[in-house]
Amino acid sequence: MDRTEMTNVLAVRDLKVTFTTPDGDVQAVKGVSFDVKKGETLAIVGESGSGKSQTMMGIMGLLASNGRVEGSAFYGATDLAHAGLKELNEVRGSKITMIFQEPMTSLDPLYTIGKQIAEPLRYHRGMGKRQARERVLELLNLVGIPDPNRRIDSYPHELSGGQRQRVMIAMALANEPDVLIADEPTTALDATVQIQILLLLRELQREFGMSVIFVTHDIGVAIEICDRVAVMYLGRIVEIADKDELFRNPRHPYTQALLASVPIADPKAKRAAPLIDGDVPSPINPPPGCAFHTRCRYAIDRCKTERPALQTAGAGHQVACWLNDGTGRAE
Known about the structure:
Layout: E1 8-21, E2 24-37, E3 41-45, H1 52-60, E4 67-75, E5 78-79, H2 85-91, E6 96-99, H3 113-125, H4 129-142, H5 148-151, H6 161-173, E7 179-183, H7 191-208, E8 211-216, H8 219-225, E9 228-233, E10 236-242, H9 243-248, H10 253-260, H11 301-305, E11 311-314, E12 317-319
Parallel strand pairs: 3-8, 3-9, 6-7, 7-8
Antiparallel strand pairs: 1-2, 1-4, 4-5, 9-10, 10-12, 11-12
Helix pairs in contact: 3-4, 3-6, 4-6, 6-7
């Protein structure tokens, strides 16, 4: 289906996330806006410290106690960014679910995986113990857990890392959500297990017809499994486009550098490899103008004093860069 014909299931507008610290307020997310369309997979890509995970936490109402959110994140008529706990709990775990990077910190070591997967079924659907157990067995089989009749009574520590992540996926899918947020779900896994989990997510996304927000630092993974990619840097989206357009025609120097860092199979192939010097600046004392100018080889004087907003760079393609195409030519 043409994504231009799809309806939005989630609309995020000017989302800001701020934390109160002993050094003062720190803004981790600085006015992020994006839509998630029905049935699509949107990747949020960026280095550590880019604000991608805090964006998701702000949407889901899962910020630390010193965090606060501004802006909006509409699921239907519900603004998740400002909903009360009761309203949030009606959506979380049912309509929008989330899986995390390290399942061992998300699963309760004192309860069997069967009881933990059954919890959202009993809370949101009012299932009895027997009915919930039957559904849990179906879900364990669906996500590829071997011998589900035995594993349903296992504790998290009795499973491998890949199996625990499959359990988290089963839990997230229990109520057949409209949106699944996957926050770096494969980072802690071995390479072969990562591939298995990614393929599983893609297969389940197609089967359930749900939308997926896939948070990752690896733009190569994003290009492989997603429909659209939003690139974040120091709390802002700097480029967003369909994956094919982004791969063929990256406009922001940061996106270009991320793509150049993706390994390629042919050792004889030659390509430009723009390097990113230094580290992501501290959000406590961000640079003026374009936050990337301290690491950008194309930066001009304007970049150091004025922050560019997202501008249209083609159909469905937006970029926040004074040079637009990253080659040192002004627009």
